[in-house]
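look at this one:
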Amino acid sequence: MQDDVAEGSAVTIVGGRYQLLEQTGQSGVAIVWRGFDDVLRRPVTIKVLAQPVAADAELARLLRDEAPAAAQLAHPHIVTMYDYGEEPAGDGLIIPFVVTEPVYGSTLEEVLTSGRPVPWPAAAKVAGQAAAGLAAAHEAGLVHCDMTAANIMLTASGAKVADFGVAALLSDSRTPAFLAPEGLHAASAPATAAADVYGLGIVLYRLLAGSSPWQAMTPTGLLEAQLRFEPAPLPRAAGLPVEVTQICMDCLAKDPDERPPAAAVATILLAIHATATGELPAIADRPQATVVLDRRRAARRNRRRAMAVAIVTAGAVAALVLLLPKPGLLAPAPFSAGPLGQPSATQPVPTPAVAPVPSAVTTSPTPGEATRPGNGAPTPLPPTTGAPAPAPTTPSTSPTPPPAAVIVQATGGTVTVSCEDATNAVVTSMTPAEGFTTENAETGPAREIRVVFLSPTHQSEIKATCQDGAVDPKTKESPINTAGPSPFSQR
């Protein structure tokens, strides 16, 4: 970098043409500057890597590979990348930087920090425009890697997705609250278009609800909730189309194959916004996008139905196997070693002699013989001499199946609990009631699970343990004295 002196103040120049005028932001690895392009005489935004890297480092190679593709993205809802450069730092080190169009406005995250939902037509518009930007990038073979509310800029011309491609590589690691389940299973898993759609689903949910789909006290609890629980139902809003709610939940599907493509999401949401406000003409591609979403939903239903059938079939087979006699159960038990003259356990067991059965051809029926119904053929009576008839065997009993999950209901919400083993309980789902939030969730597996639902006037606490594999739940309801401090305020 070089410093030029102009009117008594030092101005840093990068790339031989870009002035760094004012620092406007900083992340863990990069610094954002308001800049000016001396060649084209226009304002720019410049993101500079905070620390130099080796010219042959993996990050440098990734940046050089991504730069040409990212520079080709030209879309009204994507922040346009102007240039990529590397400033020498000596000793074989470089400082990469990215130049983009200047964006004037606030981030969506700044708007959502109020905790209030956005009117649904505006939510559909913002999410639809962001989806349109994602769709253009996905078509070009690029994924965002960190689709969050902080990376959506609200400008006079609409929403713009920032930090695509190279700029994303100069940002912090992926935001856990917006990370798709497949990324939570393996932090090193490559980002995909479906993961971008998942992040967009969380953005849309926060727009409509004013809060995240999962409530948790700790980052670890949040990640666990994303992996194991379905999103809390969206609150009812006057006039909110069911289609918007369905799209939001489709984007949050845990299976990436069940999420819709960004192009279909954009088409539907922008068409719904147009119908509600009359700002835009109807979009001709909406029927086709609806067909895409309907096919995804049908495929999801079919997969779940097939899974349910497989589970039922497997259960029936397992039950049949348990009911069938085990090998050797009906065979004579071996003799134990006894006094002299009796067989031992290693000697063959003699078969008792049985009187020959009279033939139906050579023997005539006698008054003491039974006959088979319908044909008069004689059936021999049981022999009165020889070996005694075998004693009836006692049918084996199947092991008692583990108890089913228990649904525990309280004023503040509902929790489903099951036993992972004889002593450890685990929460499989939890849903707060209307007006309540999840204040705390210790979901196990553990000796005791605990979930607390809280409203401004009431607290519901649900605890459960497992006794010999059976769920033992307990609930506690506590009104909150609104005249005094909250019981949680002194924590």
Observations:
- The chain has a mean pLDDT of 76.
- The chain has three domains: 2-100, 106-304, 405-479.
